[in-house]
Amino acid sequence: MTTQEHRLSNGFRIVTEHMPGLASAAIGIWVTAGARHETAQQNGIAHFLEHMAFKGTKRRTALQIAEAIEDVGGYINAYTSREVTAYYARILKNDVPLALDVLADIVLNPIFDENEIEIERGVILQEIGQALDTPDDVIFDWLQEQAYPEQPLGRTILGPSERVSAFARPDLSSFVDQHYRPDQMILSAAGAVDHDAIVKLAETFFGELNAGQGGLVDPARFRGGEIRQIRGLEQAHLALGFESPGYRDDSIYTAQIYASALGGGMSSRLFQEIRENRGLCYTIFAQAGAYADTGMITIYAGTSESQVADLAHITIDEMKRAASDISPAEVARARVQMKAGLLMGLESPSNRAERLARLIQIWDRVPPLDETVAMIDAVTTGDVREFAEQMVGSAPAALALYGPVKTAPGLSQLQERRAA
What we know:
This protein is α+β, with helices and mostly antiparallel strands. Helix content is 46%, strand content 19%.
């Protein structure tokens, strides 16, 4: 497999990887313009804009956008995160030019029809309502807000309903003008693709865009805090977060291995002790999330009102124990799980295209796979124990509780248990 990169004169970046033997390809445009790039008054607009991209352009109606891809058996979609908005398609080899044409059209030429704005506003308000009715979704937004209060990184991706209700056509156009610049865009493709042909098409579609200086964000500051929302649900939901490295920090691999060993699978410490040995929950996991300049180790579990205190205390105890006795076997298992997940994911052209885009966004290059594997293999048991000590000893923390959680231990109580 061959990875190739190219940069147009205006800063627009292109990365492709040919995967022999495939008859299909994945192609997309990743824009460094997510929820983190919004002002408080714009919160939710990046996601709103993602929706509006499919509602008509200067050349195609909403139906024609869908038909153009689906008539050739393809698939088109988009998503918004806190640091990026992505528009992507999966198509057969011969339809790559068509897919890029459609993607360029929806990114560069949306018309923001007033009637369509109102229709899509209703759709997004329903999406917000659905998220608020889903405890194991909304609790992560609340945790994020507590970790990064009064910062763009702490705000929800969907935005509050009162903001979404007020967005108008000029607001959408202004955000596009500010952030949809060629130096903030990455065209990534993998599978049955021809690099030179894609570069030529990209030059046609994006080569005349004027460069800009958008996309700058304030540094994140993990502050921590607690939110407790009492509601008559069947389960008490708990999400606990600890400040950890961003994805440009080499210790991100240590953080990921630690999270995997602590709560990344059925063999992990939290799963074995809290679910298998004590039967305190059905779902419990830990994960390491990362942004450009910060990250968070997140632990989530759902349990009954009567057991939430025991679950929270045992979670802290397991974190403390990991700092002293996490074993070489556990670290080795976590390393293998990371490498297997990476390699298995690369069998999909969609996953590979997304990975290429993220690597270009992070490092402005695609590190060889062997380099990434070497970084994972370089993490020692001592590194993980030292990291575990930081998590339980000094890392700032945030806590979100939702459901029948009136008597659940608060952050101050868990901090005391960390220090005991």
